[in-house]
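User: Need the bound-state model for FE2/S2 (inorganic) cluster:
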Amino acid sequence: MKYDAQDCLLVSKNRLTPTIYDFYLQNQTLASITRPGQFVQVLVPGKTLRRPISVCQVEGDLIRLVFEVRGEGTEILSRIKTGEIINIIAPLGRGFSLEPDKKTVFVGGGIGVPPMLYSAMQFGPNAIVINGFRNKDAVILSEDFERAGCRLIVTTDDGSFGIHGFVTQPLAEVIDDAEMICACGPTPMLRNIAKMAEEKGVPCQVSLEQRMACGVGACLGCAVAIKDGNGRIIYKHVCKDGPVFNSEEVAW
Ligand SMILES: Cc1cc2nc3c(=O)[nH]c(=O)nc-3n(C[C@H](O)[C@H](O)[C@H](O)COP(=O)(O)OP(=O)(O)OC[C@H]3O[C@@H](n4cnc5c(N)ncnc54)[C@H](O)[C@@H]3O)c2cc1C
Ligand code: FES
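Assistant: Bound-state model below.
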Protein backbone atom coordinates (compact mmCIF):
# COMPACT_ATOMS: atom_id res chain seq x y z
CA MET A 1 0.00 0.00 0.00
CA LYS A 2 1.26 3.46 -0.87
CA TYR A 3 1.02 6.13 1.78
CA ASP A 4 0.73 9.74 0.68
CA ALA A 5 1.94 12.60 2.80
CA GLN A 6 -0.44 15.53 2.51
CA ASP A 7 -0.38 19.14 3.60
CA CYS A 8 -3.15 20.39 5.88
CA LEU A 9 -3.92 23.95 6.94
CA LEU A 10 -3.96 24.46 10.71
CA VAL A 11 -7.25 26.36 10.92
CA SER A 12 -7.70 26.45 14.68
CA LYS A 13 -5.50 25.94 17.72
CA ASN A 14 -6.47 25.95 21.39
CA ARG A 15 -4.80 25.07 24.65
CA LEU A 16 -6.98 22.77 26.77
CA THR A 17 -4.55 22.58 29.73
CA PRO A 18 -1.04 24.03 30.18
CA THR A 19 0.38 21.01 28.28
CA ILE A 20 -2.48 19.76 26.05
CA TYR A 21 -3.22 21.28 22.64
CA ASP A 22 -6.25 21.01 20.38
CA PHE A 23 -5.57 21.38 16.62
CA TYR A 24 -8.04 21.39 13.72
CA LEU A 25 -6.39 20.50 10.40
CA GLN A 26 -8.17 21.09 7.11
CA ASN A 27 -7.96 18.45 4.38
CA GLN A 28 -11.15 17.32 2.65
CA THR A 29 -9.68 14.14 1.12
CA LEU A 30 -8.17 12.78 4.33
CA ALA A 31 -11.12 13.81 6.51
CA SER A 32 -13.53 11.93 4.26
CA ILE A 33 -11.69 8.60 4.66
CA THR A 34 -10.64 8.75 8.34
CA ARG A 35 -12.40 6.36 10.73
CA PRO A 36 -12.70 6.31 14.55
CA GLY A 37 -9.61 4.93 16.29
CA GLN A 38 -7.21 5.62 13.42
CA PHE A 39 -4.17 7.85 13.77
CA VAL A 40 -2.00 10.20 11.73
CA GLN A 41 1.78 10.55 11.48
CA VAL A 42 2.63 14.22 11.88
CA LEU A 43 5.78 15.72 10.36
CA VAL A 44 7.59 17.78 12.97
CA PRO A 45 9.68 20.57 11.47
CA GLY A 46 13.38 19.73 11.85
CA LYS A 47 12.75 16.06 12.77
CA THR A 48 13.07 13.01 10.55
CA LEU A 49 10.67 10.76 12.47
CA ARG A 50 7.00 11.67 12.40
CA ARG A 51 4.93 11.60 15.61
CA PRO A 52 1.81 9.40 15.85
CA ILE A 53 -1.31 11.22 17.09
CA SER A 54 -4.82 9.71 17.23
CA VAL A 55 -7.72 11.26 15.42
CA CYS A 56 -9.89 12.88 18.08
CA GLN A 57 -12.73 13.88 15.78
CA VAL A 58 -13.61 14.50 12.14
CA GLU A 59 -15.96 17.38 11.36
CA GLY A 60 -16.63 18.06 7.66
CA ASP A 61 -13.23 18.67 6.09
CA LEU A 62 -11.48 19.06 9.47
CA ILE A 63 -9.39 16.50 11.35
CA ARG A 64 -9.04 17.25 15.05
CA LEU A 65 -5.91 16.21 16.96
CA VAL A 66 -5.53 16.62 20.73
CA PHE A 67 -2.02 16.02 22.01
CA GLU A 68 0.08 16.46 25.08
CA VAL A 69 3.56 17.96 25.03
CA ARG A 70 5.79 15.11 26.18
CA GLY A 71 9.16 15.69 24.50
CA GLU A 72 10.89 17.79 21.90
CA GLY A 73 8.72 16.78 18.94
CA THR A 74 5.37 17.59 20.50
CA GLU A 75 6.85 20.80 21.93
CA ILE A 76 7.82 21.92 18.41
CA LEU A 77 4.34 20.97 17.18
CA SER A 78 2.70 23.03 19.91
CA ARG A 79 4.48 26.14 18.58
CA ILE A 80 3.01 25.87 15.04
CA LYS A 81 0.66 28.79 14.44
CA THR A 82 -2.85 28.96 13.02
CA GLY A 83 -2.63 29.52 9.24
CA GLU A 84 0.53 27.44 8.88
CA ILE A 85 0.79 24.08 7.10
CA ILE A 86 1.20 20.72 8.84
CA ASN A 87 2.15 17.67 6.80
CA ILE A 88 0.57 14.35 7.82
CA ILE A 89 0.31 10.78 6.60
CA ALA A 90 -3.24 9.60 7.23
CA PRO A 91 -5.39 7.79 7.96
CA LEU A 92 -3.27 5.03 9.50
CA GLY A 93 -3.95 1.80 11.35
CA ARG A 94 -7.02 -0.25 12.12
CA GLY A 95 -9.51 1.64 14.25
CA PHE A 96 -12.41 0.45 16.41
CA SER A 97 -15.03 -1.90 14.94
CA LEU A 98 -18.16 -0.10 16.04
CA GLU A 99 -21.70 -1.45 16.03
CA PRO A 100 -23.95 1.45 17.12
CA ASP A 101 -26.86 -0.92 17.92
CA LYS A 102 -24.74 -2.57 20.65
CA LYS A 103 -24.64 -1.15 24.19
CA THR A 104 -21.06 0.10 24.22
CA VAL A 105 -19.00 1.52 27.05
CA PHE A 106 -16.10 3.78 26.03
CA VAL A 107 -13.32 4.10 28.58
CA GLY A 108 -10.54 6.67 28.25
CA GLY A 109 -7.62 7.38 30.54
CA GLY A 110 -5.71 10.68 30.42
CA ILE A 111 -4.42 11.42 26.94
CA GLY A 112 -6.21 8.21 25.87
CA VAL A 113 -9.48 10.15 26.07
CA PRO A 114 -9.23 12.06 22.73
CA PRO A 115 -9.52 9.00 20.43
CA MET A 116 -12.69 7.94 22.26
CA LEU A 117 -14.59 11.09 21.23
CA TYR A 118 -14.96 10.34 17.52
CA SER A 119 -15.89 6.73 18.37
CA ALA A 120 -18.46 7.56 21.08
CA MET A 121 -20.02 10.29 18.92
CA GLN A 122 -21.24 7.59 16.53
CA PHE A 123 -23.46 6.28 19.38
CA GLY A 124 -24.76 9.58 20.83
CA PRO A 125 -27.06 8.88 23.81
CA ASN A 126 -26.41 5.13 23.45
CA ALA A 127 -22.79 5.60 24.53
CA ILE A 128 -21.71 5.34 28.13
CA VAL A 129 -18.38 7.16 28.39
CA ILE A 130 -16.08 6.79 31.41
CA ASN A 131 -13.11 9.17 31.36
CA GLY A 132 -10.42 9.08 34.04
CA PHE A 133 -7.82 11.75 34.83
CA ARG A 134 -5.16 12.46 37.46
CA ASN A 135 -6.99 15.48 38.84
CA LYS A 136 -9.48 18.27 38.04
CA ASP A 137 -6.91 20.32 36.09
CA ALA A 138 -6.25 17.43 33.72
CA VAL A 139 -9.93 16.92 32.75
CA ILE A 140 -10.48 17.53 29.02
CA LEU A 141 -13.22 17.24 26.37
CA SER A 142 -16.17 16.75 28.77
CA GLU A 143 -18.28 19.34 26.92
CA ASP A 144 -17.59 17.62 23.62
CA PHE A 145 -18.84 14.25 24.88
CA GLU A 146 -21.89 15.93 26.46
CA ARG A 147 -22.64 17.87 23.26
CA ALA A 148 -22.63 14.55 21.39
CA GLY A 149 -25.33 13.37 23.82
CA CYS A 150 -23.18 10.67 25.45
CA ARG A 151 -23.77 9.64 29.08
CA LEU A 152 -20.53 10.86 30.64
CA ILE A 153 -18.92 9.71 33.89
CA VAL A 154 -15.65 11.36 34.98
CA THR A 155 -13.24 9.99 37.58
CA THR A 156 -10.14 11.57 39.09
CA ASP A 157 -7.37 9.76 40.95
CA ASP A 158 -7.37 12.36 43.75
CA GLY A 159 -11.13 12.97 43.91
CA SER A 160 -10.80 16.67 42.96
CA PHE A 161 -13.52 16.20 40.30
CA GLY A 162 -16.19 13.58 39.59
CA ILE A 163 -15.88 10.15 41.17
CA HIS A 164 -12.83 9.63 43.39
CA GLY A 165 -10.90 6.64 42.03
CA PHE A 166 -10.13 4.79 38.82
CA VAL A 167 -12.33 4.21 35.76
CA THR A 168 -12.73 0.56 36.71
CA GLN A 169 -15.07 1.52 39.61
CA PRO A 170 -17.90 2.96 37.48
CA LEU A 171 -17.15 0.35 34.82
CA ALA A 172 -17.93 -2.38 37.37
CA GLU A 173 -21.39 -0.81 37.82
CA VAL A 174 -22.31 -0.78 34.12
CA ILE A 175 -20.41 -3.79 32.74
CA ASP A 176 -23.28 -6.27 33.27
CA ASP A 177 -25.38 -4.38 30.71
CA ALA A 178 -22.52 -3.83 28.24
CA GLU A 179 -22.30 -5.65 24.93
CA MET A 180 -18.95 -4.09 23.97
CA ILE A 181 -16.16 -2.13 25.65
CA CYS A 182 -13.75 0.14 23.79
CA ALA A 183 -10.79 1.56 25.71
CA CYS A 184 -7.67 3.68 25.29
CA GLY A 185 -5.23 4.76 27.99
CA PRO A 186 -2.27 3.61 30.05
CA THR A 187 -1.37 -0.09 29.84
CA PRO A 188 -2.21 -0.94 33.51
CA MET A 189 -5.70 0.53 32.97
CA LEU A 190 -6.19 -1.43 29.74
CA ARG A 191 -4.95 -4.63 31.39
CA ASN A 192 -7.46 -4.27 34.24
CA ILE A 193 -10.31 -3.49 31.87
CA ALA A 194 -9.38 -6.49 29.71
CA LYS A 195 -9.48 -8.72 32.81
CA MET A 196 -12.90 -7.40 33.87
CA ALA A 197 -14.25 -7.85 30.34
CA GLU A 198 -12.95 -11.41 30.14
CA GLU A 199 -14.49 -12.31 33.54
CA LYS A 200 -17.87 -10.97 32.41
CA GLY A 201 -17.61 -12.34 28.86
CA VAL A 202 -17.95 -8.88 27.29
CA PRO A 203 -16.04 -8.31 24.03
CA CYS A 204 -13.43 -5.60 24.50
CA GLN A 205 -11.30 -3.60 22.07
CA VAL A 206 -8.20 -1.76 23.28
CA SER A 207 -6.16 0.90 21.51
CA LEU A 208 -2.48 0.35 22.31
CA GLU A 209 0.23 2.97 22.41
CA GLN A 210 3.71 1.90 21.40
CA ARG A 211 6.79 3.89 20.47
CA MET A 212 6.77 4.23 16.70
CA ALA A 213 9.17 5.14 13.95
CA CYS A 214 7.80 4.62 10.41
CA GLY A 215 4.15 4.21 11.44
CA VAL A 216 3.33 2.14 8.34
CA GLY A 217 4.59 -1.39 9.08
CA ALA A 218 8.07 -1.06 7.55
CA CYS A 219 10.50 -0.92 10.49
CA LEU A 220 9.30 -3.44 13.16
CA GLY A 221 9.67 -0.64 15.71
CA CYS A 222 6.22 -1.05 17.26
CA ALA A 223 5.98 -4.82 17.85
CA VAL A 224 3.43 -6.07 20.39
CA ALA A 225 3.08 -9.62 21.73
CA ILE A 226 -0.17 -11.23 20.59
CA LYS A 227 -1.58 -14.71 21.32
CA ASP A 228 -2.45 -16.66 18.19
CA GLY A 229 -5.36 -19.10 18.09
CA ASN A 230 -3.15 -21.91 19.49
CA GLY A 231 -1.92 -19.98 22.51
CA ARG A 232 1.47 -19.26 20.92
CA ILE A 233 2.97 -15.78 21.11
CA ILE A 234 3.42 -13.95 17.83
CA TYR A 235 4.38 -10.33 17.22
CA LYS A 236 2.23 -7.82 15.39
CA HIS A 237 2.69 -4.19 14.40
CA VAL A 238 0.75 -1.70 16.50
CA CYS A 239 0.92 0.77 13.58
CA LYS A 240 -0.43 -1.52 10.86
CA ASP A 241 -2.29 -4.38 12.59
CA GLY A 242 -3.56 -2.03 15.35
CA PRO A 243 -3.53 0.28 17.20
CA VAL A 244 -6.87 -1.36 18.11
CA PHE A 245 -6.78 -5.06 19.08
CA ASN A 246 -9.29 -7.39 20.70
CA SER A 247 -8.24 -7.44 24.34
CA GLU A 248 -8.14 -11.25 24.60
CA GLU A 249 -5.53 -11.35 21.78
CA VAL A 250 -3.04 -9.22 23.71
CA ALA A 251 -0.36 -11.07 25.74
CA TRP A 252 -0.60 -8.72 28.73
C1 LIG B 1 -1.13 5.11 17.79
C2 LIG B 1 -0.72 6.23 18.72
C3 LIG B 1 -1.58 7.27 18.96
C4 LIG B 1 -1.22 8.32 19.80
N1 LIG B 1 -2.12 9.30 20.02
C5 LIG B 1 -1.79 10.33 20.81
C6 LIG B 1 -2.73 11.38 21.03
O1 LIG B 1 -3.85 11.39 20.49
N2 LIG B 1 -2.35 12.39 21.83
C7 LIG B 1 -1.10 12.41 22.43
O2 LIG B 1 -0.82 13.35 23.18
N3 LIG B 1 -0.22 11.43 22.25
C8 LIG B 1 -0.52 10.40 21.45
N4 LIG B 1 0.40 9.40 21.24
C9 LIG B 1 1.72 9.51 21.89
C10 LIG B 1 2.62 10.45 21.06
O3 LIG B 1 2.90 9.84 19.81
C11 LIG B 1 3.94 10.73 21.80
O4 LIG B 1 3.66 11.44 22.97
C12 LIG B 1 4.89 11.52 20.92
O5 LIG B 1 5.33 10.77 19.82
C13 LIG B 1 6.08 11.99 21.74
O6 LIG B 1 6.96 12.67 20.87
P1 LIG B 1 8.01 13.71 21.42
O7 LIG B 1 8.98 14.02 20.34
O8 LIG B 1 7.33 14.87 22.04
O9 LIG B 1 8.70 12.90 22.59
P2 LIG B 1 10.11 12.13 22.61
O10 LIG B 1 10.08 11.26 23.79
O11 LIG B 1 11.20 13.15 22.49
O12 LIG B 1 10.06 11.29 21.29
C14 LIG B 1 11.19 10.63 20.77
C15 LIG B 1 10.74 9.57 19.78
O13 LIG B 1 9.97 8.56 20.42
C16 LIG B 1 8.67 8.47 19.86
N5 LIG B 1 7.74 8.36 20.96
C17 LIG B 1 7.90 8.84 22.21
N6 LIG B 1 6.87 8.52 22.98
C18 LIG B 1 6.01 7.84 22.22
C19 LIG B 1 4.76 7.26 22.43
N7 LIG B 1 4.18 7.28 23.62
N8 LIG B 1 4.15 6.65 21.40
C20 LIG B 1 4.75 6.60 20.20
N9 LIG B 1 5.94 7.12 19.92
C21 LIG B 1 6.57 7.74 20.91
C22 LIG B 1 8.46 9.76 19.11
O14 LIG B 1 7.55 9.59 18.02
C23 LIG B 1 9.86 10.07 18.64
O15 LIG B 1 10.17 9.35 17.50
C24 LIG B 1 0.06 8.32 20.42
C25 LIG B 1 0.94 7.28 20.19
C26 LIG B 1 0.56 6.23 19.36
C27 LIG B 1 1.50 5.11 19.12
S1 FES C 1 6.37 1.90 13.52
FE1 FES C 1 7.53 0.97 11.94
S2 FES C 1 6.57 -0.99 11.84
FE2 FES C 1 5.29 0.10 13.19
